Every structure is written in structure tokens, then in C-alpha cells.
């Protein structure tokens, strides 16, 4: 799976998914609407990984901060504290421009913090660059998932 999108706003989710598909039509994207659903999805992905499904974990997460049930910062804290998930790049993709959110996100291990643009053309550009960098230019070990599954790290 390429991208896990955690976004509760239906309009933002629809536009983000459209822009991601424009960036690369062959992307495998899973969308969940709240922090608890994301946590549950990732817990199931870890089980699948340990059963040998090498592409179970996302290669990238786009995480909104203002989420129901479990907010984005708390979810980020849980992800980065879990050795099975800590290496998954998490891009905070939010409308919040609050300095407190920005600082806390980086303290908790966010790999990037991006403010959602209001213009769809800008959204296309930003998400295209995010996909290009994190899924094409960023180098990960080829067999990191299988290494984690077999080593118990």
C-alpha cells in the first residue's frame, strides 16, 4: 500500500484523493476518517506484516491533526512510539497554522508539516511534489518490511 490518508472532512478527503490520483494514477490509497480507524488499520497491517504480507504498511501517511475520536497528534505519538511503525513517513497535512501544533508535531516525530492550500491547483502541485519525493526520490531499504517482520523489531 502506498498512502494512508487520515482525513475526517469529506470535502478535503475528496479533493486530496483526486489530487493524489492526478499525481500518480497507479497509487494504492486507503482513506480513513478518524484517528481510531487509522490506529485500527495500522494494527491490522502489523499483523499482516508479521504473517508475511510485505506491502501491508503504508509507504507514506498523510495525517490531519484535527480528527474525531483520537486527534492527529496523539495518533502520531502512538505511531512513532511503535517500532513496527516508527519508520513510516508521516506528513502532517492540515489546515492548522498554529505554531504550537507545528512544534509539537516535529517533537513527536513528524517527517514533514504541510498546510493544506485553499486553491485546488496549489493542492495538485503540493501533493504531486509530496508523492514524487516520498514515493520516488526518498530511499528506503528494499526489504525493510520483511526485515521488521522476521526480526521482531
How does this model look, in words?
With 153 residues, the protein is of the alpha/beta class. It has a single domain (3-151), classed as Response regulator (Rossmann fold, 3-Layer(aba) Sandwich). It has six helices and five strands. It has helices at 10-23, 35-50, 72-81, 99-107, 120-137, 144-151; strands at 3-6, 29-32, 60-63, 90-94, 112-115. Strands 2-1-3-4-5 form a five-stranded parallel beta sheet. Helix 2 (35-50) runs parallel beside helix 3. The chain is globular. The two termini are 21 Å apart. 30% of the residues are buried. The mean pLDDT is 90.
- Poorly predicted regions are none
Please give the domain count.
1
Strand content: 5-15%
CATH architecture: 3-Layer(aba) Sandwich
Largest sheet: 5 strands, parallel
Strand segment tally: 5
Question: How would you state the average pLDDT, rounded?
Answer: 90
Rg estimate, integer Å: 15 Å
Descriptive keywords:
153 residues, Rossmann fold, five-stranded parallel sheet
Furnish the topology, listing elements before pairings.
Elements (H helix, E strand, L loop, with lengths): L2 E4 L3 H14 L5 E4 L2 H16 L9 E4 L8 H10 L8 E5 L4 H9 L4 E4 L4 H18 L6 H8 L2
Parallel strand pairs: 1-2, 1-3, 3-4, 4-5
Helix pairs in contact: 1-5, 2-3
Organism: Parvibium lacunae
Keywords: Phosphoprotein
Pfam family, one: Response_reg
Brief summary of the model shown:
This protein has 153 residues and is of the alpha/beta class. 49% of the residues lie in helices and 14% in strands. It has a five-stranded parallel β-sheet with strand order 2-1-3-4-5.
Amino acid at each position: 500500500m502506498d498512502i494512508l490518508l487520515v482525513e475526517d472532512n469529506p470535502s478535503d478527503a475528496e479533493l486530496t484523493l483526486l489530487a493524489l490520483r492526478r499525481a500518480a494514477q497507479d497509487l494504492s490509497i486507503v482513506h480513513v476518517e478518524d484517528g481510531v480507524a487509522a490506529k485500527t488499520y495500522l494494527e491490522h497491517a502489523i499483523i499482516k506484516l508479521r504473517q508475511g504480507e510485505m506491502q501491508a504498511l503504508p509507504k507514506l501517511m498523510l495525517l490531519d491533526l484535527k480528527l474525531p475520536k483520537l486527534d492527529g497528534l496523539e495518533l502520531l505519538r502512538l505511531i512513532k512510539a511503535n517500532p513496527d511503525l516508527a519508520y513510516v513517513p508521516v506528513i502532517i497535512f492540515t489546515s492548522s497554522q498554529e505554531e504550537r501544533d507545528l512544534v509539537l508535531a516535529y517533537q513527536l516525530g513528524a517527517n514533514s508539516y504541510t498546510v493544506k492550500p485553499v486553491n485546488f491547483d496549489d493542492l495538485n502541485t503540493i501533493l504531486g511534489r509530496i508523492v514524487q519525493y516520498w514515493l520516488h526520490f526518498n530511499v528506503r531499504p528494499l526489504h525493510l518490511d520483511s526485515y521488521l517482520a522476521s526480526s521482531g523489531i
